[in-house]
Amino acid sequence: MLSILRAKVPEVARAVGPLVAVVCVLQFMFVGASAVLFVQFLAGSLLAAVGMVLLFVGIDLGVLPMGRFIGAALPKSGSLWLVVGVAFALGFATTLAEPDVLVLAGQVNAASEGAIGRQTLMYVIATGVGLFAAVALFRVVRGFSMAALLAVIYVSMILLSLAAPADLVPLAYDAGSVTTGVLTAPVVLALALGLSSVLAGRSAIEDGFGLLGLASAGPIVAVLLLGLLTS
């Protein structure tokens, strides 16, 4: 664990450092915010950095190994529906815990003055990720073309974008972008890589990647469909 911790601290420092440096330059040269606000920013940045280190260590230490183990163990049941159901459940659950999704849902709720509920948006996004994660693992088991699947889904997204209410289209694509974050992406990838590793004659590169493209398309389709149903 200590070796993982030592590796993650410099990574987080390189990620957070430029942000802090830019804000400091703006503070002293252009903005001139109050000392209290600036100190709050520095303290918040430090807490965020510590949280990121702990989060990344936790993912490497527990989430990724467990995801691979679950993916490798599922085929032993002999049930395709169990594989699909577990993929949906994990995609749904991790999306609800995804920090980016929580931030987006909160901001949308505030900007719309409650017209788009925080919980409603979170569950719609999570359902989209869960369904498309299930489709992704179904494809891994059956082995059909990822290119054909992505083509069908992205054409559907374009058609839905043209038909859905215009004010929900930007939100739908933002919802797609926030789902491939620090929790959902590792879980989906680890699950698929574990599954493909025990299927005879399969390639981890071909089967394990491209899934995030599917996962990010799920919330887009879900939010666009919600717009069509409620318009």
Describe the SSE topology:
Layout: H1 2-31, H2 35-73, H3 80-96, H4 99-111, H5 118-142, H6 146-163, H7 169-178, H8 184-197, H9 204-208, H10 211-230
Helix pairs in contact: 1-2, 2-8, 3-5, 3-8, 4-5, 4-7, 5-8, 5-10, 6-10, 7-10
Write up this protein:
With 231 residues, the chain is mainly alpha-helical. It folds into 2 domains: 1-62; 79-230, no CATH class. The protein has 10 helices and no strands. Helix 3 packs antiparallel against helix 5 (118-142). The longest helix is centred in the first third of the chain and has 39 residues, at 35-73. The radius of gyration is 20 Å and the shape is globular. 31% of the residues are buried. The model has no long low-confidence stretch (mean pLDDT 87).
Features:
231 residues; mainly alpha; 10 helices; 83% helix; globular
